[in-house]
Each structure stands twice: as structure tokens, then as C-alpha cells.
Amino acid sequence: MAQCGRSTLTPSRTPQSFFTRTVSAKNQAFASVSFLRTLPEFKRYPKQCSVVMSCQGNAQRQQQLSLDDLVTSNRKGEVLGTIQDSLSNCLSDTNLLETVPGLKSRIKGKVRDIYDAGDYLVLITTDRLSAFDRNLASIPFKGQVLNETSLWWFNNTQHITPNAIVSSPDRNVVIAKKCSVFPIEFVVRGYVTGSTDTSLWTVYKKGVRNYCGNALSDGLVKNQKLPANILTPTTKAEDHDVPISPTEIVEGGFMTQAEFEEASMKALSLFEFGQRVAKEHGVILVDTKYEFGKSSDGSILLIDEIHTPDSSRYWLAGSYEERFRKGLEPENVDKEFLRLWFKENCNPYEDEVLPAAPAELVTELAWRYIFLYETITGSRIDILPTQLYQQEPIHDRISRNTSQALSSLRQL
Predict the structure, then answer these.
(1) Cα-flanking dihedrals φ and ψ of residue 214, to 5°?
(2) Residue 374 and residue 381: Cα distance in Å, rounded?
(3) pTM metric for this prediction
(4) Which residue, 54, 56, 104, 81, is CA-closest to 385?
(5) What is the CA 26 to chain-centroid distance, rounded?
(6) What's the rounded Cα separation, in Å, for the pair 165 and 153?
(7) Secondary structure of the chain: what % helix, strand, coil (to 5)?
(8) Which residues lie closer than 8 Å to 98 by C-beta, 6 or more apart?
(9) Measured between alpha carbons, how far apart are the two ends of the chain, in Å?
(10) Closest CA to 141 of 405, 372, 400
(11) Using CB atoms within 10 A of its CB, is residue 402 exposed (0-12), middle (13-18) or buried (19+)?
(12) How does pLDDT run across 245-263, given as a tens digit for each residue?
């Protein structure tokens, strides 16, 4: 059975504007990969070296994590109090139009608030948690963790592809120049899993054996590792993702053949690299999605986010094989447990008003985001205690830092 019927979206040879998807093509301002602020010096993984073996050939012991590390680690005890104290200090919304001079408009996404600053876009990563096409809760420090996770990966994948980041003046903020964005999400998968309508396991168990141009053999089971990573692109409809094949992408005018081939190669290379880095630190990068834009010189740039717990699925590597053999679900490091709570306590798709997420589950999810960031990067994230927010509220801090950064940009 074939899958990926033709999307009903109107194709265009001109990619949409970077992130906003509303800026006129006549006034495109394109992305730069230069950094105004030097990012922290993260560990580098040169392309020619294995992340399991050092470049000098010395074996590195692969870290093995268990559920105990996630549940009972000393680090959890260190940050738990700060998380609990911050439950009422989350960044749930922003309105920089009133506090930052020169901003023209705002688009409120599921997680990010995006401001038009002329030649630049200001992207504020909030603490909002989105699932079931709606906002479920606000999670302390989630926006900061997502933002800093992406920055770490952007900084460490420049040997694979340039990106559109200009600067990060605040722990919740990224500034990027505008560029043309392709209306395609490059979803890369390494395992047969998932529960959404477009997930690989959902369509496979319905009998689909050709998904987005990928031939799938009979006999695969849930959570099984694929023989090779595959690309299952989607294009955006109004309220959901629509699977699409490479042939349809080109024939529909969403991308040229050359553009698709280059972006596909970048996506698969990024995913392979991400898997190697994750494995070294005891986790499995199961699947993820990438977005790309095109600069004025024709180069294809990585945009949006990369390998965050919002855009990716992660499992604990140490227990995966045994649990798979026993037919058990992998131990995961993501928001699935909170999604399940909502499904058990309401109809999150249809109920007009949802129950409030329990504080203990919100706190646990905040910890899991921090745990994943610190596990992969090998560095501790700097979370501010509540008393500092009382001295300067989050929104005031973001406004101050963003104003200063944009003022410096305009003087260049």
C-alpha cells in the first residue's frame, strides 16, 4: 500500500519567509551565519573522528544511563527546589512590542513568539508545553533549556551545514536574519515507533509498506531499529502535518531537485551525527525533524531548532535492547508521560477546558529537560533562583537584553 498522497497545499517555487511564513518575497532579508556574540566553547566532534573513539585512537567508555539516573540522581535533588519555587514564574507569554523599540509585529507559535525586527527576527522560546494542537501547561526553565540545547547543536554542527543564527543575547532569545524557508519538515527516523497519525509505527501497522518513498519490509515490530535511517518529509497543512514523497515535493514545486537532494543529505548527516553524540552519552536519538532556509547567495541553511526534546524523541540506551527483547516500551526522556496523563483525565482534542497539570508532573518534566541537556552537552545549565526573578522579572530581562542586542545590530 502506498502512502503520502498529494498535499492540498498550494505549492510555490518561492520558499516562504523564515519562521514567520508571512513576509513578502519582495522584501526578503536573508540569513547570515556570522555570530555577533561568541557562543560558549562546547566540545567539538570533528567530522573525521568517531565520537566513540577519540581522534588519537584511545577508547572512550560509553556512558550507560538507567532510569535510576533520571529518577534519583544527586543533580535532581540540587535543582528540584528551584524548579518547584519557579512554578509560578514561568514565561508563558511575551509582549515585546510594548517594551522593545523597533519591533513591527508578533506571531505567536506553539512554543516560540516571533517578532519582526526589520532585517532580523527575534525568537523568544517560552515555557509553554504544546501537545494535541494546544497549550497544556507551562514548564519552568523549558524555554531556556530548548534555546540552549539548540545553540549547543547549532554550534557543533557547523561542519555539516551553516545555520541562520546571528546571536543569542538572552537565555530564552535567538536573533536571526530573515531568509526564505522551504515549507517542508525533514523528518528523519531511525526506529519504527510513534503514536501520532503520521508516525512510522501508526502507518506501518495499518499495512503501509511504502511511506514517503521508503520501501518497508514485512515483519517489523514496534520500537525496532531500522536497517538504515530514513527520511519521511511532511509539509504543513493548516492544522496538521501532511506526509509527502520526494517526487511530490519536486513535482509540486515546493523545492527543486537539487535543493531537495542537498537538504536531504544535510538532514541525514545531521541525524547520524546526532545519533553518535547521543549514544556516547547513553541516550538514543530515535527521530527528529529539521527545517531549512535559503540565503541570498543560494546556500541552504539550517533554521528553527535542532535535536531538542520538543522536536526529537530520546530513549535511554542502556536498557533498550533488553526491554525490546521483552516487548516492553523503551525508557524515554520526553513529555510522553504528561501527554498520557491528559489523555487519561480528559479529551485533550475536544474538551474546551482542560484540567491543570499536576505540579509534581510539571516539576518532573522540567527536570527531564534539564537532565537531557546536561547529559548530552556534559555541562550544567545555569538556572536562576527565584529571588533573582523577583529583582528583575523574566520579561524585563528579555526586553533589556533584546533591546541592547538590536541596538548593536543596527549600528553595524
Answers:
(1) -105, 125
(2) 7
(3) 0.84
(4) 81
(5) 29
(6) 12
(7) 30, 25, 45
(8) none
(9) 56
(10) 372
(11) buried
(12) 999 999 999 999 999 999 9
